[in-house]
Design brief:
0% strand, mainly alpha, globular, binds tryptophan, 22 helices, single chain, Hydantoin permease
Length: 490
């Protein structure tokens, strides 16, 4: 790095405190993945079986990849691409894959964020006595998918909010926002969980989640299906496998304990995911919404809850969606930040002053355009103005078989590319590089022992980097290929 670049280093900014970092990292992790994704994926993949596999993966893959990313980021002081570049120009592609994964994730995340805002405003209008759901009541979700004007409007709105926050820069933007929003979110979610516990029929939802039942994992293909779904969900929910935590780590002060953070962040995230499950699945049981409803599950089940709540329902509904909205924004800004940091670092390395404003607007604008099909294909339900991927390529499912998930709608398409393929692949590449090429002792240990902290988990993390994470990732990628080529019965 030449002198001019060094001088520009402060342009990157840094976290104000470890609490701020934690809240921003937890804010990045806790989002639609936990509240929208976790309950619906658990509902589709056998409840308890999914939960157990998920929890094991969080420990042996989640915490490990988290530590690896934070260490690489803080060691190099660079974002996803820049960090690998510092080790070798040849490894730059690993970081670059992450930037692409973030791009794909955001493309559909923005649309979901827009839907969340639509529900938030819907309940808000109900509170002030205006029909907020266009006369559709609890059937609103089916209407929303074909209400293209509404979909586009809220999609744009969500993107604009993201741009405004990310333009503010690290400390004044993301950190301040997260430090208030994350604790608030926890308490509002807790309230909803407790409320639902008192509804008739809710108990069946707890049994679905917590009563041992491995029937979803019968046979090797059943096991692979649960494994790949849980693994993808874990990357998505913990913000891993695409260098997001490399970027966040690069802003972290040298005196902070990496190992502790690599355990606290996944623990908080998993707690919120399970709480979201305990809100949505018992609600499904109580109001007869099928667990396996797919991506609409959060919206349909929760609207039943709030509508049946009576007088205060609309208000609680508003509060709930407001919190989901905040969770979504603190996550989407972290995704946008990854994409932007890539360009900012490049400018700094070239000795040019980065223009954060311009970079943010261009990145967000491009992602918005790529996300348009997601907003306009009615989740592949047919007859929409924009065709789903399988319709475009003229795929015909055989009698009694499903269209493979990767191409059944644009949301699942981008979801499969990012959390299903690029992120497991990114985690595989990172753990092999750390375990075998850079070596855990050199790349991770010195970072974990900064400022006199003890790295007591070295043995465990090292074995995971070298063997366990790569082995599981290869299984996940194989499962993904099988899922695509071997059609499943309806
Ligand atoms: N974890 C977030 C969620 O659960 C989504 C997210 C934010 C993310 N940043 C990420 C996922 C980086 C993967 C990588 O909603």
């Amino acid at each position: 790095m030449d002198q001019k670049s060094q001088h520009l280093e402060h342009e990157r900014g840094s976290w104000g405190s470890n609490f701020g970092f934690l809240m921003a990292a937890v804010g990045s992790a806790v989002g639609l993945g936990n509240i929208w994704g976790f309950p619906y994926k658990m509902g589709m993949t056998g409840g308890f079986a999914f939960l157990i596999v998920y929890l094991i993966l969080v420990v042996v893959v989640g915490c490990v990849v988290m530590l690896g990313e934070l260490a690489l980021g803080r060691k190099t002081g660079r974002g996803a691409v820049g960090a690998y570049m510092q080790f070798s120009k040849k490894h730059k592609w690993v970081g670059f894959l992450g930037v692409i994964a973030g791009f794909c994730l955001l493309a559909f995340y923005n649309v979901l964020g827009g839907m969340v805002m639509r529900y938030m405003f819907g309940f808000f209008f109900e509170v002030v006595g205006i029909d907020g759901f266009a006369g559709q009541g609890t059937g609103f979700f089916g209407f929303l998918l074909y209400d293209y004007g509404g979909m586009l409007f809220f999609h744009v709105l969500f993107v604009i909010i993201n741009i405004l926050i990310v333009m503010g820069g690290v400390e004044s933007g993301i950190e301040k926002f997260s430090s208030v929003a994350m604790p608030a979110l926890f308490f509002i979610l807790l309230f909803v969980v407790v409320y639902i516990a008192f509804q008739d029929g809710a108990a069946e939802g707890y049994a679905f989640m917590f009563k041992p039942d491995f029937s979803a994992m019968s046979g090797f293909s059943g096991f692979l299906n649960v494994l790949k779904t849980a693994a993808g969900q874990m990357f998505f929910s913990l913000s891993l496998g695409m260098g997001c935590m490399i970027t966040y780590g690069s802003y972290l002060d040298k005196k902070e304990d990496l190992q502790k953070n690599a355990i606290i962040i996944p623990a908080c995230d998993t707690l919120i995911a399970i709480m979201a499950g305990m809100a949505v699945l018992p609600a499904c049981a109580a109001y007869d919404v099928p667990y396996a409803s797919g991506p609409g599950l959060l919206f349909t089940s929760m609207q039943q809850v709030f509508t049946n709540m009576g007088e205060f329902g609309a208000f609680v509904g508003f509060l709930f969606y407001f919190l989901v909205f905040i969770a979504a924004v603190t996550s989407s800004i972290s995704l946008l930040e990854v994409v932007c940091t890539y360009r900012i670092d490049r400018a700094i390395d070239k000795g040019v002053k980065p223009n954060r404003q311009k970079i943010t607007c261009i990145a967000a604008g491009l992602i918005f355009v790529v996300g348009l099909p997601v907003a306009l294909d009615a989740l592949g339900s047919g007859g929409a103005i924009f065709p789903a991927p399988f319709e475009i390529i003229g795929y015909q499912a055989a009698e009694g078989y499903k269209v493979p998930m990767a191409i059944d709608c644009w949301l699942d398409f981008f979801d499969t590319i990012s959390e299903g393929v690029l992120m497991p692949f990114g985690a595989l590449a990172m753990s092999v590089l750390i375990g075998w090429v850079y070596k855990t002792k050199k790349a991770v240990v010195p970072e974990c022992e900064q400022a006199g902290h003890k790295f007591w988990g070295y043995g465990f993390f090292n074995v995971c980097f070298k063997f366990i994470v790569p082995a599981i990732m290869i299984l996940v990628l194989v499962a993904q290929v099988i899922d695509f080529f071997v059609p499943k019965p309806l």
